[in-house]
Amino acid sequence: MSHQPVAVVGIGQTHHKKRRADVSIAGLVREAAQRALEDADMDWGDIDAVVLGKAPDLFEGVMKPEMYLADALGANGKPMFRVHTAGSVGGSTGIVGSHLVSSGRHKRVLSVAWEKQSEGNAQFALGGGKSGSIGAGGAFAPFIRAYIRRSGAPEDIGWKVAVKDRLNGAKNPYAHLKLADITIEKVKESPMMWDPLHFLESCPSSDGACAVVFTDEAGGKAAAKPPAWVLATAMKSEPSTFAGRDAVNPKAAHACSDEIYKQIGVTNPREQIDCAELYVPFSWYEPMWLEAHDIAAPGEGWKMTDSGATALDGDFPVNMSGGVLSSNPIGASGLLRFSEAALQVRGLAGEHQVPGAKLAIAQAYGANAQFYAMWAVGSSLDPLGS
Amino acid sequence: MTDTSIADPSNDMEPFNLQFPFTRTLGNTLSTFFSAVAQGQLIGVKVGGRVIAPPLEYDPETGADAGSEWVKVGPRGTVSAWTYVPEPTHLHPVQGPFAFAFVTLDGADTPMIHVVEAPEDQLRSGLRVEARFKEGDEVNGRIDDFVFVPATDPSPSEGAGEPYQAPAEPEIQTMDAYCDLTYVDNAAPVTRVWTQALLEGKLVGRTCPQCGRTFVGAVSLCCVDAIELDESTQSEMPQTGVVTNFTVITPVPYPGQKETEPFVRCSVMLDGTDAVLGQQTIVGIPASEVRVGMHVALEWEPEGQRDVSEIGNGGHGSTGGAVVGWKPTGEPDEPAENYVDRMM
Ligand SMILES: [Zn+2]
């Protein structure tokens, strides 16, 4: 690769909640950005360019919010970019920020992603304001039913993911849901929302933001705190609907992780990668992504969940932060995955730290399971020692 | 059927009115401002050596926190630029002729954009204006609690530039932002072909000459091969099929939502084809009994009562109000495992 190395030197996020009644939209994004700048030991004036991402504008009813937020994010007189790739947007926002540094164009770039779901109604927005919106749960439930039948997985796999991610979330001071007393029984008995998905197998609706500061090799090496090195990035997409499309195991998902693994020389993801943050808004997506990203063989992903391999103390921890199931400010959710992977390899993940994590991946997906964004981050530029 | 001109207004679809009562939380700075407005007081914030009014949470020059050094501004100010609105729509802040103008309030260093109610020939750069506040029940603590009118006394505002003591907990914490947008789509040629077929009680599809996939609905391209599918690729589709997958939706209430009870949306693979119609309605069976593998047949609304007005260009296989739904035929189910992966 001809690009220049990129370091993550600052990460910030808001306390995610059902409703952040104490802040405006500008206040929300600034809360995350200021924490990231503080983490990077930088000030607004140190930033060369700002990248802003969020899901559809109809979620809050503020059209083109990047214009309103430009000076709130210190972008006056600087380049300002808006990214939108549906649910994967947080990931894409991180990737675009990293590319502005890897291309050599800018030295220090701030990526910010956010959603303030409490200002509107996601079901309304996803249905374009028309009656009978099926929402994200309604769109993905058939894919999940197909996965369950295809893999022959027992029904409690989804419940186990729901419990595991919430227990992780209870260790994350920023998580929206902190359900330390959640049990399989509670998940199973929660109302059926989108058959076969129960209420507690679904993500919450959150207000929140996440911000990342990127810098070049010199900046990364001079940083006060350990940086995370961006080792690989990839984005893929595929059409929403066509005869024979495999929405359970989409080609674009495979292609995205393939490209990541090739860039860093990973041949056995489960062995070589220490942990992963995968976009799991509905419990069953954990085993689905483990298979789509070749961490497990086809039909075997659920066995990793079942055996506890994906738990915080398992051999391949997934969603150490609590994941989308614990916090879902939609536009920010992808960048939160990317940030958690970076926190892990920086050794700064606190109570949800995977000991000694050196190489982590993060993924976000969106729309009709058709847009993918992934990155791999390392504690050094060569974590596999190749 | 031949495609008629896209520009023909008779091909417009029914106007759609998008409405939603968004609710904004204000944060401390804007709460302080709007709470002051509710008391008939305009304020700014002192930051970076100047007074910004209305106040911002940050210095727009640098991004630094603006803090909370509040300053009284106005109620009189000076117009620096304007644009006149002689015929307001129902969405404008006032219903008579007015100007959107930059008004720099006395004591402030930055202009605010607001409404000036004055005859057009009175508007000029340098015009002195004063805020006229609503009173009593009309006060909401919103930006439209006041308008500017030509000042009866052009002299400097008393008290402008003096410190403002904010209450510890400002009373106004949220703001309603009502979205009201009406738009009219112009039906694409393929959408007109699809809706016309529905009115005639037919389903039509277009088959890609390259990959052989059939696309049913208002679709005129193969998204796999990225080639256009013209009317020569079109044929009539069967009206029976098998349910390949489904969702039972628990409806969330929102403005415009008509569904109140759990409802089913299913995918139907048309018999003898590889084409799947998504998000279809099932009738004649309780939601809890819908199964993968069930044989179904399309039940049409009576001729003359088929409503296609809500079918848009992005709706793919939407059958709108032309059909009642798909009804189980009672034939023995197909094995679910042969169909469950065919959601599309
Ligand atoms: Zn084709």
Q: Any overview of this molecule?
A:
The complex is a heterodimer of chains A (386) and B (344). Chain A is of the alpha/beta class and 386 residues long. Chain A has a domain at 6-121 and 205-222: Peroxisomal Thiolase, Chain A, domain 1 (3-Layer(aba) Sandwich), CATH 3.40.47. Chain A is built from 14 helices and eleven strands. In chain A, the strands form two sheets. In chain A, strands 3-2-4-7-1-8-11-10-9 form a nine-stranded mixed beta sheet. Chain A has a two-stranded antiparallel sheet with strand order 5-6. In chain A, a hairpin with a 4-residue loop joins strand 10 and strand 11 (371-378). In chain A, helix 3 (89-102) crosses helix 14 (330-346) and helix 11 packs across helix 12. Chain A is globular and about 55 Å long. The relative contact order of chain A is 0.19. With 344 residues, chain B is mainly β. Chain B folds into two domains: 27-172, no CATH class; 188-338, no CATH class. Chain B is built from two helices and 20 strands. Chain B has helices spanning 27-38, 189-199; strands at 16-25, 42-47, 50-52, 70-73, 76-85, 98-105, 112-116, 128-133, 146-150, 174-183, 203-207, 214-216, 221-222, 227-228, 234-237, 240-249, 263-270, 276-280, 295-300, 323-328. In chain B, strands 7-6-5-8-9 form a five-stranded antiparallel beta sheet, with no helix packed on it. Chain B has a five-stranded antiparallel beta sheet with strand order 18-17-16-19-20, with no helix packed on it. The longest helix of chain B is centred in the first third of the chain and has 12 residues, at 27-38. At the A-B interface, helix 1, helix 5 and strand 5 of A face strand 1, helix 1, strand 10, strand 16 and strand 17 of B. The structure holds zinc ion (ZN). The site of zinc ion (ZN) has 7 residues of chain B, from loops.
